[in-house]
Structures are given as C-alpha cells and as structure tokens.
Amino acid sequence: MSDFFAEQPAGASEGGGAGGRPPERPARGPRRPRPLLLTLLVVGVVVVGFSLFAGIWTDKLWFNSLGYGSVFSRLIWTRVLLFVIFGGAMAVIIGVNLFLAFRLRPMFRPHSPEQANLERYREVVTPLRRILLVAVSLVFGVFAGVSATGKWRIFMLWSNRENFGKADPYFHKDIGFYVFSLPWLHFLVDFAMTALFTALLLAAVVHYLYGGIRLQSASDRVSGAAQAQLSALFGLFLLLKGVDYWLDRFDLTSQSGSLITGMTYTREHAVLPAKNILMFIAVICAVFFFANIVRRTWLLPGVGLALFAISAVLLGGVWPGLMQRFQVKPDEPDKEASFIGKNIQATRAAFDLEDTAVSDYAASTTLSQVKLQADSASLPGIRLVDPQLVSDTFEQLQQVRGYYSVPAVLDVDRYPIDGRERDVVVAAREIHLEGLPDAQKKWANEKTVYTHGYGIIAAYGNQKNAQDQPVNNDGEPVFAEEDLPPIGEISKIQPEGKYRPQIYFGEHSPTYSIVGKGPGGKDVELDVPQGSGTPGQSQTNTYQGKDGVGVGNIFRKLLYAVHFGDANIVLSSRVNENSKILYDRSPRERVQKVAPWLTVDSDALPSVVDGKIVWLLDGYTTSDKYPLAEKKSLQEMTSDAVNPRSAYATLPTDQINYMRNAVKATVDAYDGTVTLYEWDTSDPILRTWEKAFPGVVKKKSEIPPDMLQHMRYPEDLFKVQRDMLGAYHVLDPKNFYEGNDKWDVPEDPSSSIRKQPPYRLSVATKTGETPDFSLTSVFVPQKKQNLAAFMSVGADAAKPASYGKFQILRLPDTTQVPGPSQIANQFSNDPKVANQLRAFKQADAKVAYGNLLTLPVGGGLLYVQPLYTLREGGSGNYPVLRFVLSSFGRDVGIGSTLSASLEDVLTVDSGDAVPTPTDNSNSGQGQTGTQDLPVGALRLLQRADDKFAEADKALKAGDLQGYATAVNEAHRLVKQALSAKK
User: Fold this and answer.
1) 479 and 625 together in one domain
2) Directed axis angle between helix 224-251 and helix 69-103, to 10°?
3) Are residues 544 and 495 in the same domain?
4) 413 and 428 in contact (C-beta within 8 Å)?
5) Which of 84, 133, 474, 498 lies most in the core, judged by the most C-beta atoms within 10 Å?
6) What is the secondary structure of 455-519 as a DSSP string?
7) Is the pLDDT of residue 923 over 80?
8) What is the largest CA-CA distance in the chain?
9) How confident is the model at residue 489 (pLDDT cuts 50, 70, 90)?
C-alpha cells in the first residue's frame, strides 16, 4: 500500500503569496475553549464507556451468582468471535477495494468541466486518504460485526447441529438441514453479497472521484483498470446470487401461501424450475463479467444483465402466475391434493399431533339421574372458583397488609389432601410496594425493609373442605392455605420445620432489593407484619439464600449505582460489607436469561414442594424452518381473553411451524435458584442446544418426584395445538381443501373479540373412568356458534400414561348442541336466572359471570358457570360466589351449589318443575294449594314464609349476603313441603 499511503506528489505548493511574499496571516478570532471541550469529550467517553461496562459486568456477576457463568461466557465469546470474523472480513473487503481503486486511478485525466469540478474534492480527500480508508473500513466493519453478533443462535445451531432422522419428500434432505444449516448458509451468502456490493459501490465512487469513471466523456468512460476491478466484483456478486438461488430452492418447503405452507403444484412445477434456470443464468452472467476483465467491452455483460433481469421477471413472476391462474385454479383440488396431504402430515408431526385422533360422541341432549350418577366421579372436579375473577377476593380476604398483593389471574394446581388429590386455586402473596402508605415510601424501606412476599394462598376449587364436604361459606372461597404465618392443609403436608414461605423471587418482585444484615448486624427485612406473629410485634429476618451479588466494596456499589441509576446504593449505610443485591427476579425472566434459546411459557405456577415455594415453568424450542409444516403467528395462537397479548422476547421470529415442550424449569422463590430439566428427550433442537451449552440442562430422571406431582401440561403449547387442530383434525386432502369441516376456537362469552381460554379441571371423557387433571377446550364450526367438539389433554406430568394424550370428542352434525356464546345467552335470558338476580341488581350489585366450563357428563356435554356478585361503589368490595348455573341440552338450572343447580336441570328435564315463589312478600300463599297440605307441610311453608320475610328485611338493609342465605333456605323449605305433600 506504499503508493496509497505516499505523500501527494509535487503540484500542490506549500503556499506563498504573489512575488514570493509570505501570505498574510488571517486575523485571529476569539480563542476557543479547546481544553474544556476536550475535557467534556473525555468525560462523556468515560461515562458512556463505564455505563456499557457496568451493564456487561453486572450481567456477568448475575450469571455467576446463579452458577450459570458458563452460559454468559459462551454467549459473550460467541458474539465476540462473530464480531471479529465478520467485522474483520467486511473491513478487509472494503479496505482492499478502496486501496485498489486508488492504486488503479489513471495518472492522466483529460481536462474537462467534470474533472475541474472533481479536482476541488480531490484536493480535500487526498491528504486525508489514509484516515478515510481506515475510518470507512472500520465503520462498515463495526456495522457488519454488530449485525453478525445477532446471529449467534443460527451459528450455534449450525455448529452443534443434530439430525432429525427424517427426510423431506422433495429434496430428500434430513430435516436438520432445513432447521440448522439452511439459515446459516443463507446468512453467509447474504453477508458476502452485501460486502461485495458495498465494495463495488465504494470502489465506483473512488474511480469516479479520481477520473477512472468519466460520465461526461464521449468515449472511454471507464478506464481499463476500473473496468477490471468493477467487473471482477460484479462477477463475484453474480456467482453468489447463483448460490442464493440454489438455497432459495430449499426455502420453498417453508414458504407461506394462501392455501398451505410449503411446496404446492405451482412451486414445484414453475417456481422451482425458475430458480434452477435463474441460477444458471446468474453463473453465465458472472462468466461474462469475468471475461470483461480481459476483453474490455461492456457488450456481453450488458446483454447478460438484460437477459438476467428479463428472465427474473418472466420466470420468477409471470410464469408462476400464469400457471396458477390457468392450469391450477380450474382443477385446484386435484392438483393440490398430494401437496395438501404432505402438509397435513408435516404439520401434525411438527406440532406433536401425529397420535391425536378424533372420536365420535353421541352428545345426548337429555340428562337423567341415572346418567348423572354414572358420571358422578367427574362432578367433584368441576371447578367453581374462577381464577380470573377471585383475585380481588383473595386480596381482600388474605392480603393481610396493603403491601402484599396477588396476581390478576390466579393458577390451578393440585395437592394430596386428606388422602385425595384435590384441585386448588393458588396465588403467591407477593410484596407490592405501591401499597405502602405514602409516608413509608422511602428508599430505605422500599429497597431494604420490604424485600419479599410471604406464603401462598390456596382455595379449594369447588367450595368443599378437606374432607370433600360441601361448605356454606357465604359464597367466599374455602381456603386450603391461608393467613400469616401460613396455616392449612398444604402446610400440614410439608416436612416439619422445613417450610420456608418467604418469596424473594416472584412475578411482581421489586426491580431490586438490598438484603443482608443492616448497620450493627441487625435484621432489617420485614418478615411477618405486626399482628400476624407475636401480637403487637413485627418479625424481621435476613436473607440467607444462594443468589444475590455481594455489594460490599465501592467498585460494585458504583457498578450498580450506574446500572440502576440510583446513587443511594453508594451513599446509604444500609449497603455494607454484609449486603447482597437481588435483581432480575421474575421467574420467567430468570429462565429466559439463563437459557436464551428457550421460549418460556407465559404462565408460572407457584407450588409448595418439600417445604419450599418454587415456580414451575415450561420452556419451548421452536423453529420456522420445518419443511412443509404450516406456519402461523405464535402470539396470535396464544392470545385469548385471559392473556390477550403474549410476548416472547427471545424469539427471533413470531412465525413458527415447529414447537416442542423441551424443558421443564423451576425457580426457587426463596433463593432464586434456576434449574432446567430436559422433558422432550427426542427433540433434536434440545439436543443441539445441550451440545452448545453442556451441563446447563439436567436429565429428566433427576426431577424430584414431589416436584413432578405439580408439573402440568403447558398452556401455551396447548393453545397452539388446539389452533392447529381446528384445521388439521381433517386428514383427507380434499375435505381439507373444501374447508367445510374446519373448527374455530369460540369467542369468550365475556369478550367477543377474544378467544375463550382453555381451562384446567379434572374430567373423565368416558363413563366410568377416573377423572384426570386436564386442560380442556371446545370447538365450534367455522363462522358458527354451535358446538362442534370437546377437547382435553392429560395435564398431570406424574401420570405418563395419560400425560399429553389428547381426547377429542366430535359431536354429530345432526345434533345441534349450543356453543359457549349461545349458552351464555341462555343463562342471561333464562327467567329463573333473571328472577334470582333481580334482587341483587335492584340493590346495585354487579353480576359477574365466571368461567364457562364444559365437560362430558351423562352421554352429553354439561355446561357449568359460577355466578358472582359484587357490590358497586365503596371500598373493600370483592366478588362472592352466589349461584351456580348449569345447562344440559336446552335446559338451564340454577342453584346456590352445584348439586342444587344440577337438581334443577334434572327437574326441568323431567318436566317436574318446582314452583319458586316470585313475590317474596306473599310466599307460600295461594301458590301451593295450602288447603290440601298436611300439617307438617304447612309448618314448613310457614317457616319458608318467615325466611322470605327475613330476606326482605335484609334486602332493604343492603345486606345482600343475608338476603341470599334467607332466600336459599326458604326455597329449601318449600321443596320439603312439596315432598311432604306427595
């Protein structure tokens, strides 16, 4: 590069005025404060640099505190490697071509106005050419390197790739080629094309600046040297374009379309041949450009480029369009049948639905006592406590203090209680700093005192106690775990003296907390609030968990002060040599950080296992390159009325066509420990990541049995699978094409623009079977509201015989069973229901309909929906379960309990209606034929009349709870009186 870096040859004088007099020195302006500017610049660089360093180093400390330092190291060094290789490659390619362009500049440039104008720019650029070459090369290198660091996933998948052991039917390549190798090969080709095209443009600019390209010249517009360099670059670019076309052929197997994803008739018979032809044309054009290095004529390259452009338009667009319109469309069902069949097979394989079968279900519309008794085992599993509605109830009854809170939507778990496995609705009692009184919202309190939540809250799902006996709890949940310190059936089954209820790591934990002994070695963290433990005295403790980064020295204090933008970390005496800092505390966030290659389920379940509260999560491996499988938006498939906007920050793309529940993860709520267990051991993507991050994922056999009891089938995977099964339960290609048997997930009755969420409950899909803890959902025919099918999947991970096994009950087309929206409409318009709710509405109580559950009972499908009331206005309001609605066929029942509601349905179904007094002031008079009743029945009616009068008084006093209790008791007495008459 000696010529490039040599000083400019003579021609530019050192400067001298006319007649050899020295030029006059221009008058000096005011002196600029250069030292101040330099100081500010240095300070700015130091601040920005230290801020970047603080972010990286605190991440390293966080990973090390969890024992996942190897994950951080591999991620960092992989990104550094990619930055160096691809940034360096880009800088070298740019630098070499800039150097060659300058080196090959013509020594003589004919005088012309164009060259005269360019001379001014050359005078500016030439003295700075060394700096410009290095600067331009480095800038493009940095951009390329930064871009390459974002490709660490596809690099690590390629470098650790595994085979799927299954080949596609068109190119006969292992599926691993498409998932692991093809994305990386595309990146390499795209990078090389970008580098060459950028070098081509920059070289052309240099040649133009120094006269190698003369646009206004009548002849010889391009010098021979410039022509040779540009032709070589263009030829290489076209060769790479040929390689790009070769790779594009394989992309046809995962290309989305209006009919299916993957290969279609037009793609196989028009697009694929076009790619092959264009590949050869690109190679021929490249040869023309290489020949131009010697022959020095633009004729052949020009003709080649014109041919290439015309071919790309005709072969790439016109030919496939004509074939689709005139050859495929008139006979599309037959032309596309084989392609649809392969798409069906691949989609079911990609989403683990190969063994899913649909069973016919008679769907009786009449329910008898005999049928109900035959399926009575399923009735205890009907969960009446709605996890979405009772959050306020839990908070009001079990919050204890304003600085504790529970999530907006609770979870469903199961525990062995009194010898039986029971479904319970659970919530973690987490710290909620917004609930602190304003006077208490000080840095020391928020960061060092109120550091953790305490215990879980659990309620039985069906208003029964530990012995499975009905409890009249005035509509409030029957708690299986409550109070502070926690007491209940869940605490009882924990090892004695081992239960640790503190929740330092939760879904709503503070951004960061400083834990450890305070000044003087005192415990400063609030553990049990005043009145919950020793009367009149709050209990404090000190965190002793594994996680947390020590911040005892000034350097780490500075690091975290910068990281969180909080100078108090440096200034407060609460941060001392005993202190640790806890941050990134959300269970989902922690799993995503230690396993950034996983997509983590949106729902984290708090469970008490072996005396510890642990968060249970599910991790997925996904891809958008599985050949021939249908591709859809993950966010769209998982969004519903409960979780309308699922976010998956770790996904490189939202469009997926492969998904596996590869990992079960746990996060210890006390010490923050993250543990990953392999789950789907047959998943090649999981095996690939295990090679990339050895030792990070533990063996499936290492899952503790007690923990396995609480692991569940993941909700987001179920949503994706049900979305796919809406179309892909159809196995015949022609029926699939016609689309007359497609199903939709119904709208949620409470939100017409959102899908109904799946529900967890224990059900039996066949008479006589033992109910299984399951995830359930229903389907309606496309664009209709009646029911099409019921679907459930075994959700208890401790039962491998049923876990992950789908049961799809298809209703006959001749039987019109109402769907959820229609049932909700029946409930809201039923006279009995309206009569029961009238008094509440007149008392300004809000009525809230709970989750509408569907389950197979009595040879048909039974709908059950809890109905809650909530007093409008005032404070301390929370939903209370008042009634249970049920429906079988077209019959609607209502009662204060599930049994009463089902009895009402049976009564309606048999035609033996029970009269219900409609005028509370005259109940029992003139409606039951009192003159024909025996004395015992008359006494019962008199007691009922007293109860109705009592209900009137309660209603006038605004006591809705007392009103409901009195009315229910009155109805019971009326029924007894009628029975006595018979």
Assistant:
1) no
2) 150
3) yes
4) no
5) 133
6) -EEEEETTSB-TTS-B---TTS--EEEETTTTEEHHHHTSPTTT-B-EESS-TT--SEEEES--G
7) no
8) 142
9) very high
Inside any domain, residue 598: yes
Tell me how far CA of residue 650 lies from CA of 592, 680, 720, 878, in angstroms.
Answer: 7, 20, 18, 37
At position 467, the amino acid (one-letter code) is Q
Lowest mean pLDDT of 155-169, 739-753, 857-871, 962-976, name the range: 962-976
Q: Which residues are 668's β-sheet partners?
A: 614
Question: Of 178, 62, 158, 150, whose CA–CA distance to 689 is shortest?
Answer: 158
- Give the three-class secondary structure for 268: helix
Q: Is residue 602 part of a domain?
A: yes
Peptide bond into 510 cis (omega under 30): no
Residue in this structure with the two tokens 């999947």, named with its chain if needed: 793
Do 78 and 199 lie in one domain? The reply is yes
In this structure, are 144 and 189 located in the same domain?
Answer: yes
Answer for the pair 688, 604: CB distance below 8 angstroms, yes or no: no
How do residues 249-287 score in pLDDT, each as one tens digit? Answer: 999 999 999 999 999 999 999 999 999 999 999 999 999
Per this entry, what is the length of the chain? 982
One domain for residues 552 and 659: no
Q: CA-CA distance, 901 to 971, in Å (whole number)?
A: 13
Which residue's structure tokens are 């007495």? 973
Candidates 580, 583, 537, 534; CA nearest to 557 is 580
Window from 483-487, 523-527, 834-838 with minimum mean pLDDT: 834-838
Residue 900 domain flag: no
Cα–Cα dist 662/261, whole Å: 24
Is 367:767 a contact under the CB 8 Å cutoff?
A: no
State how far the Cα of 685 lies from the Cα of 697, in Å rounded to an integer: 13
Tell me the C-alpha distance between 155 and 61, whole Å. 26
User: Angle at Cα 433 formed by Cα 430 and Cα 436, nearest 5°?
Assistant: 115
**What CA–CA distance (Å, rounded) separates 328 from 271?**
14
pLDDT tens for each residue of 738-789: 998 999 999 998 877 789 999 998 888 777 678 889 999 999 999 899 999 9
Q: How many domains does the chain have?
A: 3
Angle at CA of residue 435, ends 430 and 439, nearest 5°: 135
pLDDT at 922 over 60: no
Question: Where is pLDDT greater, at 75 or 876?
Answer: 75
Dihedral angle over CA of 62, 68, 71, 74, nearest 10: 90
pTM: 0.86
**Helix, strand, or coil (residue 321):** helix
Do 530 and 601 belong together in one domain? no
Q: If we measure between CA atoms, which residue out of 336, 61, 100 comes closest to residue 203? A: 100
Q: How confident is the model at residue 875 (pLDDT cuts 50, 70, 90)?
A: low
User: Which tokens in the block code for residue 354?
Assistant: 């190969």
Mean pLDDT within 69-81: 96
Looking at the fold, whether 109 and 207 belong to one and the same domain comes out as: yes
Q: What's the rounded Cα separation, in Å, for the pair 219 and 920?
A: 108
Does residue 136 form part of some domain?
yes
By three-state DSSP, how is residue 796 classified? strand
pLDDT at 455: 93
What angle is formed at CA 94 by the lines to CA 91 and CA 96, rounded to 5 degrees?
Answer: 100
Are 555 and 676 members of one domain? no
Per the CB < 8 A criterion, the answer to whether 634 and 650 are in contact is no
Domain extent for 425: 382-585
Q: Which helix (H) or strand (E) holds 525?
A: strand 525-528
Domain end residue (candidates: 164, 195, 223) = 223
**CA angle 520-524-526, nearest 5°?**
165
Which among 719, 738, 753 is the end of a domain? Answer: 719
On the question of pLDDT at 912 being above 70, the answer is no
